[in-house]
Write a structure and sequence with these properties.
The chain is mainly alpha-helical and 348 residues long. It has one domain. The protein is 74% helix and 0% strand. It is built from 15 helices and no strands. It is globular, with a radius of gyration of 20 Å. The two termini are 27 Å apart.
Length: 348
């Protein structure tokens, strides 16, 4: 029996969503840095929500591409490692070079941030409690990688449980995520917050299962949406308990993230038939190219477009920085990934 695969149209739609989310995050940070949030710049004020789209897309794509290649899991872990870490290390090197060029490296460098980012435990301490370390040299977008990596690590075990006990697995994950956030409310720490956010990633994976296996698999997606609604209620209670401290600050930030995930899921369900539309061949090639460097755009853009103040202080400098960003994303994401894929994998 032939295994279900993503259609070409759905692949293009997923690529377009990745490109849109990555580009939006870049524009969000550029407009924020240059105080352009007013007027037309207001449409780029939802950078946090764009990262939630990344979590949903990541769950969808990883489930669709990896669920039949998880045994043994060694190959899967190696593929994830070589996809995430080499561009990350290059992004840290780019930040170092830019900070040296700006003349602020020595006053900004912290060993704990360097080691913590390599260990994938970084987050942004200025907007939420319980953070272990900040991202290396203030490259804020790297916070999401410390969530993605545990999601990748857990996925083979969750997928195995899903195959044996599908209904129990959905309930166990939903309850665990809600319980994790309840613990975070009482004793803020990085690990329980990451565990709570796993539900967003898992819903993306369940959307992929529903797409590949048909309506019979949509039960997990519906259960995930119900538990996500519970997280929305719990975070709303947290806002009431602590009080509103700002749109992009805990506790409202977590409420904002989970509500955004629920709304994105609802939008996807309503627009399911129209998501995978026909795209002209030439445009497909452009979308595929941009999607192949979207991870690079995400992790390289902050040091290049925001922190490189000696260059980005003028409109012409922003154009130069944009060209540099695309070039480095092409080299550090697309070309480096292609080169690593050609290397022979050791036996897992």
């Amino acid at each position: 029996m032939r295994k279900p695969v993503l259609s070409q149209r759905m692949t293009v739609a997923l690529d377009a969503a990745r490109v849109a989310a990555a580009t939006y995050v870049v524009l969000y940070h550029v407009t924020l840095e240059h105080h352009l949030q007013h007027g037309i710049g207001m449409i780029f004020g939802l950078g946090q929500e764009a990262v939630i789209v990344f979590f949903l897309l990541s769950g969808f794509v990883i489930f669709a591409n990896e669920r039949d290649r998880l045994s043994p899991p060694g190959g899967y872990y190696l593929r994830r490692f070589r996809r995430i870490y080499p561009p990350l290390i290059l992004a840290m090197l780019v930040s170092t070079i830019i900070y040296l060029d700006d003349g602020i490296f020595l006053e900004s460098f912290k060993w704990r941030d360097l080691i913590g980012t390599l260990l994938m435990v970084q987050d942004i301490s200025s907007i939420k409690p319980g953070v272990i370390v900040d991202p290396y040299l203030v490259n804020g977008p790297l916070w999401s990688l410390s969530y993605e990596m545990p999601f990748y690590l857990v996925f083979p075990f969750a997928a195995r449980a899903l195959a044996r006990w599908p209904n129990r697995t959905h309930h166990a994950i939903g309850l665990l995520c809600i319980l994790s956030y309840a613990v975070y409310m009482l004793a803020p720490n990085h690990w329980t917050l990451v565990a709570a956010y796993f539900l967003i990633w898992w819903i993306g994976a369940m959307c992929a299962q529903a797409y590949l296996d048909g309506k019979t698999a949509a039960h997990g997606m519906i259960l995930g949406a119900a538990y996500l609604l519970g997280l929305c209620a719990l975070t709303a209670f947290d806002v009431w308990r602590i009080g509103y401290k700002g749109l992009g600050v805990y506790p409202f930030l977590a409420f904002r993230h989970f509500v955004a995930a629920e709304l994105f899921l609802l939008a996807a369900l309503l627009a399911w038939r129209w998501v995978a539309i026909d795209v002209p061949i030439r445009l497909q090639a452009f979308v595929a190219f941009m999607a192949s460097i979207s991870y690079g755009l995400y992790i390289f853009h902050y040091p290049i477009m925001v922190e490189w103040r000696r260059v980005t202080s003028s409109p012409l400098g922003l154009i130069v920085a944009s060209v540099v960003l695309v070039a480095i994303s092409w080299l550090g994401d697309r070309q480096l990934s292609a080169w690593l894929r050609r290397r022979r994998l050791p036996r897992a």
